Amino acid sequence: MSSTSTNFSSLPAGMTNASSKPAINLLRGWPNGSLLPVSLIKEAATTALSDPSIAYDGLVYGADEGYPPAREAIAEWLTSFYNPSKPIEAERICLNGGASQSLGCMLNVYTEPSSTLNIWLVAPAYMLVFRIFEDAGFSDKMRAVPEDEDGIDIAYLRQEILKSEENAGKDTTTPRYKPHRDRAKVYRHVVYCVPTFSNPSSRTMSLHQRRDLVRLAREFDVLLVCDDVYDFLQWPTASPDTKLVETLKTSHLPRLVDIDRELDGGADRKGADGFGNVVSNGTFSKLAGPGLRSGWIEGTAKFSYGVSQAGIQRSGGAPSQLTSTYLTRLLQTGQLQHHIQTVLRPAYATRYSLMASAIKEHLLPLGFTMPQPDREVVGGYFIWLGLPETLNGEELTQRCQDEESLVIAPGSIFEVPGDESARFERSVRLCFAFEEEENLGEGVRRIGDVVEMMLESGEGPCGEYVVVERGHKDDTKLQGFM
Ligand SMILES: Cc1ncc(COP(=O)(O)O)c(C=O)c1O
């Protein structure tokens, strides 16, 4: 896959290039410009806008749940990809402006800061969700749940939920600031996770943990929010010839939302309220372009309807109405699926392989580690690295920037604000999706050079460099990082 240069600066806003080397950015979680399906979107837009009935639907107020043909097309596409035991109905889908906006909307509808006890974030966690939870009133209620090699430390989560319930006692006098609504409910807890190819840790949660987590969610009235945003981007680790796209076999684990739909009678089992305990948060950002600001949620029909009845959704309909008409065409014609299969997966497989080989050559011998090293199928955008024992991620990040014009993400920015229990000062995250393909190996080599110098000079942790303050209540420095 040839890569053309993008118009984006390789350094995030506010960062200067102190060394004379060409800048390399392994921090930014954007697709490389060459991977955006510009001509397909142009063709879909022209077709949609040339048909008066589609153009009209696209340009006027739309349905609360989103453009009906888009819901149908997404349901069909998800059914063929995930292959659940029964087809996914369109009524399970509610359109929105992408995973971030969907999360904000769901918190509006399904939580109440006075009675939702905690937001449990599998940590390290995608750092830009912290503010979404803060905006919803949960600044002091975010708690980290550590990952283990299988994805999540469920025993820890159970123990902490029990403590939180105990502290809350049986007090039912807490004020409610939102009116009672038949079409929605207030969940007692929220768990946020990225079960497959997580951002940032690149881990995938095992099947048995997925089942256990759904059971736990049912037991404690948890809403499990799964950002299933990287599922379509996967490839086998051992696929030297990524041009043979038909050999790019994948291994689909059922999503947590699929398990919640099927396990023990699903959300319609005796005694359940029908809302379900899992929502899958999907987005076109990683598949067609983040500027589309378009995505969907999938949950029970009752849950999805509740989302569609949020005030911001009802006033004018779901966001990205016009864009939905383009995406409908891309899905109905199979062009998006073809783009994912023949462009994105081979390109990301190549990019991953370039970065992983360079890590094996330059970093593993220095004592770096990678999570879940024996996986047969990998995916997503990121590689998470554990550092040699004496190194500190913030210091390494700063030195890479100053001495090598290289930007990487220190593990500390993925720590849950306000919870000191899960620290990641000895980790960094590298992104292989954004930087030009030919710079991926070079970027890793530069890290190796810096680390060799640090190890040789015997520099220990906690040096003079601090890139990002812990807790980063002001996360302006994170803008554009994703
Ligand atoms: C885990 C995760 N969730 C959500 C998003 C943002 O998605 P969207 O662009 O749909 O808001 C990202 C982007 O990097 C992500 O990694």
Automatic annotation (TrEMBL):
Superkingdom of this protein's organism: Eukaryota
Pfam families (UniProt xref): Aminotran_1_2
InterPro entries: Aminotransferase_I/II_large, PyrdxlP-dep_Trfase, PyrdxlP-dep_Trfase_major, PyrdxlP-dep_Trfase_small
Single GO MF annotation: pyridoxal phosphate binding
Transmembrane segments: none
Aminotransferase class I/classII large domain residues: 59-447
Name of the featured protein: Aminotransferase class I/classII large domain-containing protein
Organism encoding this protein: Zasmidium cellare ATCC 36951
